[in-house]
Structure prediction request, 324 residues.
Amino acid sequence: MTRSTRCILVTGACGQIGSELTPVLRERYGDDNVIATDIRSPETACLRDQGPFEQLNVCDRGAIDAIIERYDIHTVYHMAAILSGTGEEKPNLAWNVNLRGLMNVLEIARGRQLFRVFSPSSIAVFGPETPPDYTPQTTILQPTTMYGITKVTGELLGEYYVQRFGLDVRGVRYPGVISSETPPGGGTTDYAVDIFYHALQSKRYTCFVRPDTVLPMMYMPDCIKATLDLMDADSDSLRDHCNFNIASMSFSVEQLCSEIKKHIPEFVCEYEPDFRQAIADSWPRTVDDAPAREQWGWRPQFDLASMTADMLEKLAPRLKSSRR
Prediction:
């Protein structure tokens, strides 16, 4: 396929969201027009074979700049990040990757006058002082994790580059993201992915948070939809830029187990809360996403029941074939 004059760069393309966002972008804009990058080598054929891939450390500004120049990058989806669980074990790494990486991208985008940058945030920006139910977009942000600290700072940096330099930076606060395509990647909400693998393979799961733990969640198709919907939105319609709450569903681990048991009656879940329980307790149970709905028409498509059915339907044949 012939490359267009301007291309899209995806950092963190091997991560949970990046690995599913990249194929959708390639389908929309053409394989050769979407440049996938990550510090690790790709495992999927789409990332490895269906378009350009470059190994990239986002802490290396020169390397990012060279790729942006080589491919004449127009738009950046900056998905590279260290997540909450890993970030608590390696806080210095989380700071460097999440903030040095973002600063590198923003500075290059400003200098080269790129069209648009997507820089995702997270519900980890909230903390114990934040109202836990129907959490407003503008509220107290006092996170208790290094991941949350980097995401609050990232939101402020993005807004600064919008106001100070006129750079078009956009971002949503992702809730827990549930995917049928990629395994857990070090986040506190990853129990909601891991549980499906165990339910299908062993019919048992030991969860690292309490059964009554309620957190905002989202199925990956809605996560990708929200990302693209925001990036497609007319600039004139946006009063906010880098801190959009997006909601889809909130449920407890117990409720998720009950839904899975409708499909796998013999499934059993046990509970051994660890350090991630305190992280989960510091986050909201539900969020208010009225600004996203009003400013760019955000609407989710999946609820708990439809997500659970789809996850099991997609995972079951793949896990069965992997055991052969």
